[in-house]
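Q: Got a minute? One more chain.
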Amino acid sequence: PSSATWTKIATADYSGAVATVTFTDCFTSTYSIYKIYMHDLHCVTTGNDINVKLLDDGDSAIGNWTATTNKNYTNDAGGSGGAGASIVQGGADNFYMSTDDLNDAAAEVSSCQMTIYQPYESVNTQIEYNLLLNADNGYQYQWHTYANLFSSTSARSLNFYTGGGANFSGYKITVLGLNR
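A: Always. Here it is, folded:
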C-alpha cells in the first residue's frame, strides 16, 4: 500500500567486543513485518558463523525451525565460482545464517538484509534473508534463505550470535517495523 511506512525500532553499533547482540522486546503488536539491515559484520577470529534466535517473553529460544538455502559463491580472486548446493536445516531452537565463517579482516566485511513476518502473532513466523558473506576461506558467498518457525509461540526479542563463541569485531544493525 502507498500509505505503508517503515519506522526505525532499534539500532546497534559495535562499541566493544561481544559474541551476542540482542534486541530485547523489539517485536510488538504494533507491527507485523520487520526489516533488519546488518552491515560491517566481521569477527575477531576466523571459525565463527552467524546464528539467529527468536526469544519468547521469558527470554527463552523458540524452537522448531526449518530452513532452506540456496548458496552461490566466487573466490576472492574472481577466478572460480558457481552455485552451491541447497542446504536444509530443521528442528533446532535457532538457525544458522551460513555454514561459512565470518572473516576477521576489517576491510572484508559482510552484510545482510532480512525480513521477518509476524513474529509477535501466535502463528508460524517466516523469515527471508539475503546474506553477502566475505568468508574466512578466500571465498565470497551469497546465501538466500527462507526459514519457517513451526511454533505458535509469540516472539518478543531477536538474538544474533557467533556459532564459535568468538566476539564480533564489527557490526551495524538496524531494525525497522512496517506501519500499514
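A: The mean pLDDT is 90.
Q: Perfect, thanks.
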